Amino acid sequence: MAEHRSMQRAALLDAARSLLSEGGTEALTFPALAERTGLARSSVYEYFRSRAAVVEELCQVDFPVWAAEVEAAMAAVERPEGKVEAYVRKQLELVGDRRHRAVVAISASELDAGAREKIRAAHGGLVAMIVDALAELGQAEPRLGAMLLQGVVDSAVRRIELGAAEDPAVITEAAVGLALRGVRG
Question: What is the pTM of this model?
């Protein structure tokens, strides 16, 4: 029975990723989850109390995997400038990934305080990855610099997700250039 519930929960999360990827937050509804998984709508409520709970669990499951990919990209280069570039590029590369869409799809205002705090903590772990590289580059306030650098990444992510007039590759190059010029001072 526990294995069946675990498989159903995984199917619901996968359906949620697909819905978010295909149609954004408006597409993530319990009737749509039920339809995608073949469950009754009432059964979806046995697994999740709300749409925010679905997103919270997606973040808990997917964010560490996503962060590990960023960390691996940074570990593949030696120089601190290369680490900054890998940090920005990898996050922007992951924008189209269904796991990433789940992390950013629902605004923090739709989540309860506990969920927002978990997501904030996960983001804090991501920001912490780049602090040492910024310190090596001579940043006087590397933690602040890391938060500001993540702000550049977040802005580029939003621009890509909005389907901006610019090609995602152009947005990525602009963000990388801005980041590298900014960390060099």
Answer: 0.78
Name the nearest CA neighbour of 14 among 66, 69, 73, 54.
54
Classify burial at 45, counting beta carbons within 10 Å of its beta carbon; exposed 0-12, middle 13-18, buried 19 or more: middle
Tally of CA atoms within 13 A in the half-sphere of 183 that contains its CB: 32
| DSSP letter, residue 176 | H
> Count of CB atoms within 10 A of residue 55's CB?
25
CB-CB contact of 122 with 109 (8 Å): no
Burial of 88 from C-beta contacts in 10 A (0-12 / 13-18 / 19+): buried
Task: In whole angstroms, give the CA distance from residue 12 to residue 120.
Answer: 24
Q: Any residues with CB less than 8 A from the CB of 175 and at least 6 apart, and which?
A: 88, 92, 152, 153, 155, 156
Q: Are 55 and 19 within 8 A, CB to CB?
A: no
Cβ contact 90:77 at 8 Å: no
Confidence at 152, pLDDT banded by 50, 70, 90? very high
For the record, the structure tokens of 133 come out as 């590289």
